[in-house]
């Protein structure tokens, strides 16, 4: 379960950023999590509950925004939807597609007091 270490890192970044800006409490955190990222949103939520205790983000809510997979097909020369990593182009079927979205896990924003 790599989600535990991912959420430990998220909480560390959130708390450090909040302190750097003079905040005493984090009210909410929003994450962008790509559907191709191999990070399970339910596991992230579960781990978030565990790792935020004793921090200034203890009462903060977590919202996860799922980002769809996209890629650039070198043969079609256009952006296409991707349902899996290293998947083929849904239009031409070839596998010369560079993933451009869907594998991220990033902090979109946070609200602090």
TrEMBL record:
Keywords: Metal-binding, Nickel, Zinc. Zn(2+) binds at residues 73, 76, 89, 92. Pfam families: HypA (PF01155). Ni(2+) binds at residue 2. The keyword Plastid does not apply. Transmembrane segments: none annotated. InterPro entries: HypA/HybF. Involved in the maturation of [NiFe] hydrogenases. Required for nickel insertion into the metal center of the hydrogenase. Belongs to the HypA/HybF family. This is Hydrogenase maturation factor HypA. It comes from Sinorhizobium kostiense. The lineage of its organism: Bacteria, Pseudomonadati, Pseudomonadota, Alphaproteobacteria, Hyphomicrobiales.
């Amino acid at each position: 379960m790599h989600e535990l270490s991912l959420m430990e890192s998220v909480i560390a970044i959130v708390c450090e950023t909040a302190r750097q800006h003079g905040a005493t409490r984090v009210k909410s955190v929003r994450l962008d999590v790509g559907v191709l990222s191999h990070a399970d949103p339910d596991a992230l939520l579960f781990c978030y509950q565990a790792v935020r205790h004793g921090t200034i983000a203890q009462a903060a809510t977590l919202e996860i925004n799922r980002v769809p997979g996209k890629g650039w097909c070198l043969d079609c020369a256009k952006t296409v939807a991707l349902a899996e990593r290293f998947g083929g182009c849904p239009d031409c079927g070839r596998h010369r597609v560079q993933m451009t979205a869907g594998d991220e896990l990033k902090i979109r924003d946070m609200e602090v007091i």
